[in-house]
Backbone:
C-alpha cells in the first residue's frame, strides 16, 4: 500500500483524504492517504520524516506551499511561476514539486461549468498567493483580456509585470472597475475567509457573467451574494477547484485520471 498525505496547519478540516480515498477506490489504486499536521516552522522535518518512512507523495496546503517550493529538488514551470508547490512526489530518490491549483481552477471553469476562458474578459480580484498560483494556466487559455484588481495596487502591478511574457495583464485598483463589465470575475482574495467582501463597485457583473469564488463554503460567500444580487449569470464556489486540483495531483502520482463529478457532488452534500 503506497502512502500519501496532505500536510498543513490547521489540517483537521481537510477534505483531501476523503477525495483521494474516493479516487483510489474508483480507479482501483492500492493507496493510503493521511492528514499530517506540522507546527509552524516544522515543515521540513515533518516532510522529510514522511518521505523517509515510505511516503510517496504529499499534498501541501496553507501555510506551507512556499516551504514545499523550496523543499523540492526540482519544480515544474507551473510551480516556478506560482512560487508555490501543492504536490510533492518522491521518484527515484528525488522530490519533485508541482502546483495543480491553476489547472484545477481552469478545469472547473472550462470543463465542469462549461464556461470558456478563451476570448473572454477575465477579472481576478486579489494579488496574493492564490492569484499568483492560477495566473499561468488562466493566461494559457488566452482570454481576450486579463485584469487584476487589488486593494494594494502595487502588488497587482508587480504580478502583471512578472507575468508579462505570458500575456497582456492590466493591473488596477478597485475604483478603476467602475463602469466596466467582465465575463468572468474570480475572487482570489482572502475576504471570504473572514466573511468580508472585496470593495468591488456595483455593475461589474452582467447577466452572462460567471462569478467564481476560489473559497468554498456552505452557503454563498459575501462575494457570491453580491454577484447574485446583481443577477450575475452563474455563481460558483471553489469546491470544484478543490476536487480538480486533487485529481491532477492524483494523476501525477498514479498516472490515472480520476473522474471528479461524483466526488464533488458527494462533498457538496457533506457540506450542506
Ligand atoms: P493568499 O495567499 O490567500 O492570496 P495573501 O497573500 O495574504 O493570501 O493575499 C490576500 C489577498 O486578499 C490580497 O490580495 C489582499 O489584498 P492586499 O494585497 O491589498 O492586502 C486581499 N484582501 C484581504 N482582505 C481584503 C479586504 N478586506 N478587502 C480587499 N482585499 C482584501
Residues:
Amino acid at each position: 500500500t503506497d502512502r500519501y498525505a496532505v500536510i498543513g496547519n490547521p489540517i483537521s478540516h481537510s477534505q483531501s483524504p476523503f477525495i483521494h480515498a474516493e479516487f483510489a477506490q474508483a480507479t482501483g489504486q492500492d493507496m493510503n492517504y493521511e492528514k499530517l499536521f506540522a507546527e509552524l516552522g516544522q515543515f521540513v522535518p515533518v516532510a522529510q520524516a514522511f518521505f523517509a518512512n515510505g511516503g510517496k507523495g504529499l499534498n501541501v496546503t496553507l501555510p506551507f506551499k512556499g516551504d514545499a517550493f523550496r523543499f523540492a529538488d526540482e519544480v515544474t514551470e507551473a510551480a516556478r511561476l506560482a512560487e508555490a508547490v501543492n504536490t510533492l512526489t518522491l521518484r527515484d530518490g528525488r522530490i519533485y514539486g508541482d502546483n495543480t491549483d491553476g489547472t484545477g481552477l481552469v478545469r472547473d471553469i472550462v470543463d465542469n461549468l462549461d464556461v470558456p476562458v478563451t476570448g473572454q474578459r477575465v477579472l481576478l480580484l486579489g494579488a496574493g498567493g492564490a492569484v499568483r498560483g492560477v495566473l499561468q494556466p488562466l493566461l494559457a487559455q488566452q482570454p481576450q483580456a486579463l485584469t487584476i484588481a487589488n486593494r494594494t495596487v502595487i502588488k497587482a502591478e508587480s504580478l502583471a509585470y512578472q507575468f508579462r511574457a505570458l500575456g497582456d495583464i492590466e493591473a488596477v485598483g478597485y475604483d478603476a472597475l467602475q463602469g466596466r463589465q467582465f465575463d468572468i470575475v474570480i475572487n482570489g482574495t482572502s475576504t471570504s475567509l473572514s466573511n468580508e467582501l472585496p470593495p468591488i463597485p456595483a455593475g461589474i457583473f452582467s447577466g452572462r457573467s460567471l462569478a467564481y469564488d476560489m473559497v468554498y463554503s456552505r452557503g454563498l460567500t459575501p462575494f457570491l451574494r453580491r454577484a447574485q444580487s446583481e443577477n450575475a449569470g452563474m455563481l460558483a464556489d471553489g469546491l470544484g477547484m478543490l476536487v480538480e486540483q486533487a485529481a491532477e495531483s492524483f494523476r501525477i502520482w498514479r498516472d490515472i485520471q480520476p473522474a471528479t463529478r461524483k466526488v464533488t457532488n458527494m462533498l457538496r452534500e457533506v457540506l450542506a
Residues 126-130, 150-152, 155, 189-191, 196, 198-199 surround 2'-monophosphoadenosine-5'-diphosphate (CB under 6 Å). The CA atoms of residues 134 and 157 lie 16 Å apart.
